[in-house]
Amino acid sequence: MDNQTLMQYFEWNLPADGLLWRRAAAQARHLKRTGVDLIWLPPAYKGAAGGFDVGYGVYDLYDLGEFDQKGSVRTKYGTKDDYLACIKTLQDAGIGVMADIVLNQRMGADEVEQVEAARFDPNNRNQQISDDKMIGAWTKYNFPGRKGKYSDFVWDWTCFTGIDWDANTNQGGVYQFDGKDWSADVATEKGNFDYLMGADVDTDNPQVVDELIRWGNWYRKTTGVDGFRLDAIKHIGYDFYEKWLDALRKDDGRDIFAFGEYWSPDVNELTAYLANTNDRMSLLDVPLHMNFRNASTSKGKFDMHNLFQNTLVGADIMHAVTFVDNHDTQPGQALESWVEPWFKPLAYAAILLRRDGLPCVFYADYYGLRNDGQPPVPDLKWMMMARRYYAYGEQHDYFDHHNVVGWTREGDDAHENSGCAVLMSDGPGGEKVMYVGKRFAGQMFRDITRRALDAVVVGDDGNALFHVPGGGVSVWLAEAAYADVVIHCD
Ligand code: CA
Ligand code: CA
């Protein structure tokens, strides 16, 4: 079995030029060679901001850039035809496509409805702070540009639990509609975190659940996507995605891969969600991202013994999607917690070159974060190739120091010249004797980051003395493997 790598193929501030689907298709073969097996594409349906919407302000799930709605036919990323062609091209190159599924909220309704609603304390959604009164709610979605094609389902206020705006008085707040309750099995931040933004979809309404399952099956059949990234699941009762995934998997006949975004730094919340949903999906390892963030801002004071402490990949190796940053954590975004650039190569080595977890490479780390003037993460492409071809075999850990830590892989017979050694430091440079295996006795290892210029020679006992510069990482491969990676990437 070859190592798998996932790539998130967008960041928040991409130009709204309608060309992402075409660009992704053009990169398909290059990405496959680099070791990418799965690509997570951004939400493909029309948002309230039309051709400018990143995709999370969902307006019409059935408009994949096909109808003249919200000021354009195409989405930020292109037309429906571009999207379908992109998926086909990626799949032909051997890359599976993960669709971003955003079902928690809707925005950009077509009409206002008069609805009885009460205000709730934004910081404690269990606390009602006003009597019911009539508000103007943007909750009627009849999609005049689509005219009932694919689905004649009309969304009205009964499909939602609450909203953040009274159009009668132009007053913001958290409004809950009369006769509705927040979903019970959601995150307990703010008392109850069912409500996130926009018009909150009522996933306790059976007609809504039926329509979203109908849509899911239509979407999968129409696009041929291979799996799903599920948005904002801590704001949706956990029984919803049990039903939705079960229904889609049954209809498809395959165990479609899915991973969820449950945004919490507390690993116990993540493992509880997995237990409650009987492991129906994997989850993004938010606690590991927060460890990377904390290490990167601690100027060497982070205790590197603890890099994998209290992480999902530490608790449940089968269901962890590890990542360094994403479109929400980048500078200026809602969950900003950007890993400082100096630490990024260390973080990527930690997700790409170890045995456990499915690593996700972020677009902006691979290509650079253009609006913020940040270049690509140094050596990322090389580490992805090292993962794909050489990071195999038994793993030996050396998390035995507050600054300098590392691990080795012994290699296996199925992957020629495989095996590697990784050493990193969040403080001064250092060195460490590590065991790479007796099969390498007398062989030279070289650092693909080329900051540690000298080769090291493995002793008869399978040990070698590896070294690393301060605030850096060195990634050592056997001589032949090193030459292969360097030639492929230059
Ligand atoms: Ca919700
Ligand atoms: Ca340290």
Structural commentary:
The chain is an alpha/beta fold and 490 residues long. The chain has three domains: 6-103 and 206-389, Glycosidases (TIM Barrel), CATH 3.20.20; 106-201, Elongation Factor Tu (Ef-tu), domain 3; 393-489, Immunoglobulin-like. Helices cover 24% and strands 24% of the residues. It has helices at residues 20-26, 28-34, 80-92, 206-223, 238-252, 267-276, 286-296, 312-315, 344-352, 363-367, 380-389, 479-489, and strands at residues 6-8, 38-40, 46-47, 58-60, 96-101, 105-106, 111-121, 124-128, 133-140, 160-166, 171-177, 199-201, 227-230, 257-260, 282-284, 320-323, 358-362, 395-398, 404-409, 420-425, 430-435, 444-447, 456-457, 463-468, 473-478. Strand 7 (111-121) and strand 8 form a beta hairpin. Helix 9 (344-352) runs parallel beside helix 11. It is elongated. One calcium ion (CA) binds at residues 300-304, 402-403, 426-427. Residues 104, 194, 196, 200, 235-236 line the site of one calcium ion.
Features of the shown structure:
elongated; 25 strands; eight-stranded parallel β-barrel; binds calcium ion; Elongation Factor Tu (Ef-tu), domain 3; seven-stranded antiparallel sheet; alpha/beta; 490 residues; 3 domains; Immunoglobulin-like; 12 helices; TIM Barrel
Summarize the structure.
Helix content is 24%, strand content 24%. It is of the alpha/beta class. The strands form 5 sheets. Strands 1-2-5-13-14-15-16-17 form an 8-stranded parallel beta barrel. Strands 6, 7, 8, 9, 10, 11 and 12 form a 7-stranded antiparallel β-sheet that branches.
